[in-house]
Structures
1.
Amino acid sequence: NSNEIKLLNNTKQKTLSKIGGNYLDMRLNAKVKDLGAKKAFHNLRHVTRKEIYDHFNWDVKKKIIAVYSVSWIDFPHLHGKNLFSDCGEWLRYTLDKIIKNTKVNWIIKRHPLESYYNSGFIEDFFSQDLPPNVGVYPQNWSGNSLIKNVDGLVTFMGTAGIEAASLKKIVVTGTKGWYGDSKFVFYPKTKKEYFNFLNSNWIVNQKILNLHSTRAKQFACWHFCAPGWQKNFIMNDDFDNEKNYDLIYKKLNENKKEIKKEVEMIGDWYFSKFDGYHSYKMYNADNYSLANAIV
């Protein structure tokens, strides 16, 4: 994606950044349809950075680094070889290493859909009692408050990595995933490199974080949004399940012009050098829209 975005002219790149930033802002304020965002950011208590320090009785001179857990039903091998055999090995390794770095404060954030899926809990991966500089983020506190008040974030390949990078936070991933090579996060190529980052002082030049922010916003538009010409020819969220079947006839009947454009676009994409169809559409779009992402 980063290579394709880099080929766009400056005007399109700036538009991607603007719309992607708008999308992420709405996501962090629970104004999108995504179920994970709703669970993470909606109707939860907002806290300040000082309240976080006070709650855990932490040294305010130390940075706060968050470790974001995973959705246990995700597909960790979808994007190629990982540093870890699965998400559980990654989380167990990460928690085991961070407790040895007392140079920073660590806060562990469970996935917002952990209870919804009921497929695993972060407590299953604690190998020992947590030291004073490591705490678990309270479930009734807003994810918005956490991501805005931390200095850095560790994620396997979660959406939080995009959100945090857009806010100019340091982001380290445990695998390439679906955005590790998009150049707005630090993606270690070896376990040693990963460990060294976990064990560091978490200091990164601000100019690098500014660049990461722009790239994260561009990626967000590229991935979550749609070409302007699609208008209303976009299906609802998968979590709507059977309700989507009731909408198919209406979508087909009311978007004939867009369907014709879609068919032509698929044919052009087939003979192009693009692997992904959505990337091909976004690359060739004259403008972009927030699609069906907004509540």
2.
Amino acid sequence: RQMTLSGGSAWYWIESGLFYMALHDYAQAAANFEEAVASDPRDPFAHSNLARAYRLLDRTQEALSEAKMAVKYRERNPAPWHGEVLTDVLRQRHEYGPALEACLENWKRFPKQRAGFLYPLIELYCIEGKWEQAMEKIGELYPEKSKEYVSAAVRTYCLSGFWKQAARYVRFCYPGAGFGLAELHSRMAKLYWHQGKLRNAVACMKSALRYQPADSPAYAEYCMQAADIWFYLGKKEKAAAMVRKAYPKEESGKREKPAGLQDLRQLYEYGTRCLYRGELSEALAVAEYMETNP
């Protein structure tokens, strides 16, 4: 507040707006970004941040106008951020063709940062039914037998609904790319999960956990993946057992609830663990809190 009151430049208002964005107070953030635009109508960051705030407030028409203004003035302060915000706004408006064009413009302008654009680009290509172009972009970025290439290719097949091709790619290409057996079986479980073949998914997760050492960093993640499947099969005791394996400290009274707004993803995961353990009142309290802080 002292920064904002002591100066009239756009960046005073931008920094203040970013502070409110971090607090998830999008209305106040938008008000500050509006002041930034008024202070310097040609500042692309003022427009792109205002577009982002409007998008989170579901004011998508105003968000689109601001995002276009940011792109118009981006030569003054070139950054991929402006194109990314425009892409996000267009996606929220279900304007996938223009969103794809905006993403491709970033791809062309910022070749050193293409890895960060790849997965949004793959998703847009697949939505438009252009999975072959997505595969071409993956090939522009990574060698064909690399982990990165194989992961992105599987993602492309999944988004296009080519489940058999995705499964074949995992079985035959994961080992050659350097993935372990635990990773292979975990990925196969996810493929079965998305197709609703939960019993096949269970069998794969049993194999994944057999190959994954209990003291490895990924063990808890695999246990929770198994817990998801058991819970939706109605096997609540087995789901609870997997949670206990993943988070043994929470069973010994050392449970720590995430701090709230700064850790919404962690809070969601905490609520899921409570649900799977049968602690319904705590899970409901987390759900109600998150519903009021979307």
3.
Amino acid sequence: TKIKNFHLKPIIFHQDFQKRNTQQLNIFDVKIAQLSLKEIVLAKKKLGLTNASFNGTNILIFKTNTKPQAKKDDAVKTAIDIQEVISTNATLKIVNPNQQDFLNTGLFGVNVKKYIYDNGKANAPIPFLYENFDVKGQSVALNTGDQKINIAAYALNDSSGEFRKISLKPAIQSPQKTTADMNIERIHYSINDWKFIEKKLKLDVRNVLIEEANGKILAKKKTSIKKTNNTYDGLEFPLLIKNVEVKNSNLTYDQGQQPLTFKHLNAQFSNIEMNESTSKKGIPFKKGDYKIQSK
């Protein structure tokens, strides 16, 4: 089965949608140049697809000001089961309610062995199951509100990932915010395991490598730091990082007075842990072994 020039189009503009009293969180505008399927299974409350191939998919998502509400257990009416998904030449753009871009990507490709979405996972942080995914792409621009992030290229799978030529620039200038102004040649990570437990992320990281990070960390001023405990409600403790290595970097930590500078920095950190106790401290990690070389 082949479908060409598919278009899921909103019937009203984003600006008009914002004015309406609606509970919808997002508006979708999706174009697919070509979609091919080996097999389609339609049954009661179930959609099954086999060997789904998407080429030239352009996804545009408009975010609204609607606040997420708790989902009922029966909120998802249809289960979706897709075997062997391949998407090539895709793009994704997400626009904030103020019309500013939140995320904008260049072309990327996705390969997923299995994707299952059903009502049993409707309330989970990730409401679907998957097996063996690979994502590769170029050019990502992200604006978090505090930080502008640009990535030239990336490759991700379910056990590791790599980002190349990362640029971080402050989106705002505020003594109440910690931001970064730097360029990083490469970041690579590998993980032992990640999963959600009672809607909290359980993360066990094996290795993190940061190469050629050059720039500044602009820390919020001490007078702006409230004496309250930090909260990490979305994390399941302990969070573990076995090894972190920083290579050939030049970094400055600037809090307004006597900036701390590391030139030709090479550093290794091991057995880093964040737990219930350390999360209440200014530096929320338990220090393991470390070695720092700098000029």
